[in-house]
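Checklist before submission:
- one chain only
- standard amino acids only
- sequence pasted in full

Submission:
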Amino acid sequence: MRKTCNWKFLIGIFALLGAGCSPASQVAAPGQNALENTPFFAWMEGYIALAEGEEWSLMLTSFRPEGTKDPALEQASAVELVFEDDFCPIEVIDAEVVEPGAPAQQDGMVFDGLSLTLSAAQQGTAACEEVILHQPDGSEVHRKIGRLVFDVGPVEPETTALDTYPGPAVATSSDSLVYTWDKEDKNAVITAIQYGEDFVITSAEQIADSEPEANGLPASGRIALDAYDAPYLYIKAKITVQDGAGTHTEYARGCYCGTDFDADDIAASREHNAAS
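Returned file contents:
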């Protein structure tokens, strides 16, 4: 399940992660702490709102010391998300290890991507903190990823009130989420934006860099993400909209925030995720 990445969007993520990289440092010497030679995922948090039955792609970033291999990732026959309380609203229907077009190195580490195609199987909210890499011999390798909250809601009637796809899909900083949505219906009113399990915006005062609206929340602006702890975030917001047909939910495009990883972020990810 390994492929080379040719998809511009994913190449952009790898390019941003590798921006400003200096020459790789030496690989840990034999006898050094085993944790330093353990592959691990970037510490990631976020919120992913989906409609039941929707399919979506999610990229996880895995680090390994330069000069080493990650056979558990390379040879995985399937990938499974582990949810709290065994409630699984999301299924992994495909997984691919994605290699950058050129060697990607940062502070002595090489990184790969694990591209997951997800299906929103049933309605409900659940948090995932680790994945299982199923091996060909039937064994399992468990790895922490951080904490991603999946919120699967009902399929809403098709609407043209709001186009949520304009705006950035990748941001180098994890400090804020910048969004730009187009109102197809100029009379539509955005009444709420949910960007985390317990993070819901209902007042325009909570949004920076925005143009005031006569009613409701602005269709573009910047939302502070300081409630999260991880250096790498993925936010796919849920928007409540009122229009002539009533109140309904829109599911926004996702955005990776914090792709400009540095040595401190790698160290924090190793400390948080490698000891699983």
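Reviewer check: The radius of gyration is 20 Å.
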